[in-house]
Amino acid sequence: MPNDGHLAIERSYVPHTEIGGDYYDVVEIDEHRLLLCVADVSGKGVPASLLMSNFQAGLRTLLRQGVELATIVPELNHLLFRNSGGEKFITAFLGIYDRRTRSLQYVNAGHNDPLLITDDSTVQPLKHGTVMLGIMEELPLLMVGKVIIPPHSLLLLYTDGLTEVFDDDNNEFGEEGVLNVLLRNRYLPLPKLHQELLRSIDEFSSHNAQFADDITILSCRFK
Q: Could you tell me the pTM of the whole model?
């Protein structure tokens, strides 16, 4: 994971079964830009994992070709629809950060909103994008979001295994629970922040860490 004068990145992955369906990636595109990606496939087992493998291979190929997010996302959607016929889908967040301009261009394709928290505790969910990928041959809309990242900000990307945790009264941990943990602990070293998130859902859960889905956390601290 990158850790330089511009940013530091940490990841955690807790699989629910032996064959997981979550995916995260950090790709250095060139000396200035890198891609952050977290994705989640519908369904379980080998077919779901194979579809996610297609997604990963397609994404890496498109990045090598130097195309932009406005092209990458429709191409990935077409690839997934061709392989699954609309029977499975992938939610994904893809962001390209430029160290020179501190700008993050991103597409949220039906995924949990990543949370950007600035040094003054302002919270900005990253919502712009499109629908989940693979359910229709052509995307009905696509908006590439852009945000300038202030110094000392924290960005959290995650899959729904982190939020869809329930207590004994069937209350969901949810985005609110994640945000509460972040606001209390955002200046911890990133590995310890991840540990605190996992400890919090373990404590909250009525199933004693028998979570219902894979859990992926990808965090980025901007310097």
A: 0.93
